[in-house]
Design a protein that fits this description.
The chain has about 200 residues and is of the alpha/beta class. The chain is built from 7 helices and 9 strands; from the N terminus they run βββαβαβαβαβαβαβα. It has one domain: TIM Barrel (Alpha-Beta Barrel).
Length: about 200
């Protein structure tokens, strides 16, 4: 599989925020979002077997597959998730939602965080009805980010317990975080910070 890195850290955003995990960051993305904080160039090429060996015995018992966009390597991704499931690990994945994850694979995932980008071809109805899927919307000024009025209308049709609003930004101060906080409070959904950005960690 084409990867950027494999590392241990604490999840900085979304429903697993603050929880330790082994991160498997896959390379490549089908979108080009302004301000993306991920280097999309591969620096590793590991087999599924090699990744499973790294995950075996993982004391945190939690693996987060992120990117880039993991679903661009769907065949190997399915094998990886199947192997992690057999190891009894808690599997999380982060995706932009533009590619459907087959049901058999999706059922093995503890938590899929789908972050639809404004203007992309994310199949929101498909993801919204899955009980292990959380939807994370990024609030901000770039074209791919969402606006207050759009989210107010969109979120009225969704399960608020599984919706998160996060501010755009990769600067330590996260200047517009208060806007995301206030909108989440007004709409009755979850607020996500970006702890790794605030603390300058990965």
């Amino acid at each position: 599989m084409r990867l950027i890195e494999v590392f241990r850290s604490i999840q900085g955003e979304g429903p697993a925020m603050g929880r330790p995990a082994l991160f498997i960051r896959l390379s490549g993305c089908n979108l080009r979002c302004e301000g993306c904080d991920t280097d999309l160039k591969p620096s590793l090429d590991l087999s599924v077997r090699e990744l499973l060996e790294r995950a075996e015995g993982e004391e945190r018992r939690r693996v987060i597959i992120t990117g880039g966009e993991p679903t661009l390597q769907m065949d190997e991704l399915g094998d990886l998730i199947g192997g992690l499931h057999r190891l009894g690990l808690e599997i999380h994945i982060e995706s932009n939602g533009t590619n459907i994850i087959p049901q058999e694979t999706l059922e093995r995932i503890h938590c899929a965080v789908i972050s639809p980008k404004r203007g992309s071809n994310c199949n929101l109805p498909f993801w919204a009805c899955k009980s292990n899927v959380h939807l994370k919307f990024v609030l901000g000024k770039p074209d791919w980010c969402w606006r207050d009025e759009e989210l107010t209308e969109l979120i009225s049709t969704l399960d608020r317990e599984r919706v998160w609003i996060m501010a755009y930004g990769a600067e330590q101060g996260m200047k517009n975080a208060i806007d995301a906080w206030n909108l989440a409070l007004r709409l009755g959904v979850n607020y996500s910070d970006r702890l790794h950005i605030r603390l300058r960690q990965r």
